[in-house]
Amino acid sequence: MPVSSSVDEGQAEVPDEQEGLPINELFYSLQGEGTLAGVPSVFVRTSGCNLRCWFCDSYHTSWEPTHAWMTIPDIVDEVQSFDKAEHVVVTGGEPMMHEETVELLEELEGAGYHTTVETNGTIMRDAPVDLMSISPKLASSTPTKEKDPKGNGEWSQQHEESRIQMDSLTAILEAYEFQLKFVVTGRDDMPEIEQLVERLRSQSTANINPTDILLMPEGVTQEQITETRGLVAELAKEYGYRYTPRLHVNLWNDAPET
Ligand code: SF4
Asked: 253: helix, coil or strand?
C-alpha cells in the first residue's frame, strides 16, 4: 500500500503535527543496501527530511513530501500483516526527525523484530535499534543551483550547513551497532570520506573498522547505477572499504515500493 496524501510544496521540514507518524510508504520487499542486503524486510518510510540532497532517491519525502498519518498501533498492525518478515527497515526522509519514531521502534522491539534505521546521522535519539545505517551526506550531495531539481538552489546553504553534525554522529556511533554508508558520485568524494572517518575516529570512542564503511554508487535507475558502480567497486578495493549494491535498483529499477 502506499499511504499518501499531498501536502503543500515548501511546507515546514517537519510535516504538520498529527497523531502518529507521516508515512510515505509501507511495503514488503528485500533490503537493497548495506550489510543486510537481500534480507526480506518491511519498509516503513516516514515523510520529511532536514536535508535536500540533489540526488535524493525518495523525492516525495524531502523535496515534495507526500504522506498520510498513521498511528503507531496501525503501523505495527500493517507491519505484522507481512508474516514472512522478521526485519523492519525504518527509513525516510529522515525518520529520526520525529519523536514518535522512538515509540514505533519500542513497539517493534516488543513485537520481536530486528530493526534497521536508515538515517543521515544529523539527529541522535535514544531508541532500541539493532542496526543504525548512517549515511552522512558529502559535499557532492549539496543542491547547488545547477543540480537542484527545482533549479533555484534555495536549499543549498541550509543543506551545506546542516549535513554534518559531529555531535550527533559521534553520539550515534557510540550508542549503536552501525554501518557508515556513503553515496559515492565519483573519486572526488574519497578525500572527504577519509577526512570524516579520521575525525570520527579521533572524536569518538567508537571502533570504526574498514568494513563498517560502505561505498554505494549514486544513482536511482539501472542506467545511472551502471555508470557509477564499476568505479565505486574499484574505489572499495583501493581503500579497503566495503562495496554495497543497490539491489532493489538492480532488480526492479526505480519502481515504487521496492
Ligand atoms: S538525507 Fe536522505 S532523504 Fe534526506 S534529502 Fe538526502 S537522500 Fe533524501
From this structure: coil
* 213-258 confidence digits (pLDDT tens): 999 999 889 988 888 999 999 999 999 999 998 888 888 888 888 8
Where are the domains positioned within the chain? 21-252
Whole-angstrom distance, CA of residue 217 vs CA of residue 199: 23
- Mutation to probe ligand 1, out of 43, 137, 159, 165 (largest number of atoms < 8 A from CB): 137
Residue-wise burial string across 68-91, b where 16 or more C-beta atoms lie within 10 A, e elsewhere: bbbebeebbebbeebeebebbbbb
Please give the model's pTM, rounded to 2 decimal places: 0.92
Question: For residue 32, is the peptide bond before it cis, meaning its omega torsion is within 30 degrees of 0?
Answer: no
Return the bridge partners of 44, or none. 26, 90
Instruction: Please give the CATH topology (third level) of the domain spanning 21-252.
Output: TIM Barrel (3.20.20)
The answer to whether the beta carbons of residues 76 and 21 sit under 8 Å apart is no
Q: Is the CB of 66 under 6 A from ligand 1?
A: no
Cell numbers of 126, please?
535514544
> Per residue in 48-82, pLDDT tens?
999 999 999 999 999 999 999 999 999 999 999 99
Q: Indicate the burial class of 2 (C-beta count within 10 angstroms; 0-12, 13-18, 19 or more).
A: middle
| CA 209/CA 178 separation, integer angstroms | 11
Of the candidates 126, 120, 110, the one whose C-alpha atom is nearest the C-alpha of residue 57 is 120
